[in-house]
Amino acid sequence: MAETYLLIENGTVIDGDLNPPIEDCDVLVRNARIIKVGKVDIETDVPRGADLTRVDARGKTVMPGLIDIHCHMTYGLARTEEEISMYTPPELRTLIAAANIEKVLAAGVTSISQPGGSYFIGVGLREGIRRGLIHGPRMTTAGRYLTTSNGLTDWFPDSTGVPDSSTGRLTNTKDAMIDEIRRQKKGGVDLIKLADSPFGDFQAFTDDELKMCADLAHQLNLKITIHARGDGEMNAAVNAGFDHIMHGNHMSEATIENLAKSQIPLAPTQLLMHHVVEFAEESRARHSIVEATKRMNDATMDSLHRAYKAGVKFAMGTDSGFALVPYGQWHARELEMLMMYTGMSSLEAIQAGTKNGANAMGLPDDLGVIAEGKLADIIIVNGDPLKDIRVLYQPGKVETVILNGEVQSFPDDIRSRFIRNDYLPHEYGWELITYERVYEGGEIPKTQLDWSGEQRGDVLNDLRKLTKLAAEPAAE
Q1: What confidence category does residue 1 fall into, taking pLDDT thresholds of 50, 70 and 90?
Q2: pTM for this prediction
Q3: Residue 182 contacts by C-beta under 8 Å, 6 or more apart in sequence?
Q4: Measuring CA to CA, which residue among 428, 431, 419, 432 is closest to residue 73?
Q5: Domains of the chain
Q6: Which of 3, 250, 415, 453 is the most exposed place for a label (fewest CB within 10 A)?
């Protein structure tokens, strides 16, 4: 195979590793890897006659592609749990997921990890991308969530049971957990996902069960993660040696200290929860759900600020796949959520959205940083995300997406292609919340700007001002 070279010239490089941005900087790529960061001399750095592509990034930001470690490709923009778990046959779910995944890459998300989904569709998507059958980002995937009768994905009455189409798999005994992990390994997953209690009100798995699951997953060369909103399951997951953890809405000081010491990444995945409240009127979500979510968000604000101050490592996860967080629309807004809910800087948020997610992709030494020897997953942004993190999700601002050293191309109407499971109404919200619908004029209101600096100290008050709760319960 002939060598190919890609030269990104004159950009401002944010490397993903907390270093100050480098202005007027070049990045040279050979095949899939970065070979030089700095001023490039074509005469000496590129062989004469080599296949060379040049991209002028003057006045633009060059940074690692985003890594979303909580993206559900099989959910199909769901409004209800029934849409996710009971309706749409697997053949159609697969086609819908394949049609949606290109939009994720077009948004500048060059890697995703799917922590749970229907059947083994995620494995099929991953392999389809690797073989060039579909166009999408790097991908790792879990199978169905392991849950107990008290966990997140045992949604339905015992008389109904947990259908095979559900994203959950009921495992009430250690033997059942072992059996399911072994079957999922055979099915080709990259990681195991456990689902503890829905809202963190109690711990649904025992400490011993979590440790057993983690040990078996690691023995089989798999990663393991968990939906953990409560303090008990958070601390137990850290002690069990989970590879990364989702949510962390309620954490005691002892749990935060334990998590910070472990340096296990926490992906708060706050975007969906925030949208439930902020866009309550637009989505016509139930008033009771909005109020309960608002209380959860207030608690999360407190926990995550304390966690950030204690040195907890954060990663980016979005829960994309619901109607409130459609594919390709909002992924980078989770970085804004991290700034808002933890108090971190924009540079730290970018590290969370790049370098800190690399381990979930199984490539901790290869992804998420612009440096010599790293894989060339890069985006070029028309704007400065250090001054305004929102340019990373404003339409058209991510101008160039580079995956494995290759410049990607997309259909002109990629953002307007909404391919969904469309069966039942209502639970997460009736309406599809797109950027264009929320911000009709294309610009974000000034009141939603800076979450850093002086405004960070009063962020909870600002958040409450932004919240748009319906005065009366939404119509059923």
Answers
A1: low
A2: 0.89
A3: 216, 220
A4: 419
A5: 4-64+372-407 (2.30.40.10), 66-361 (3.20.20.140)
A6: 453
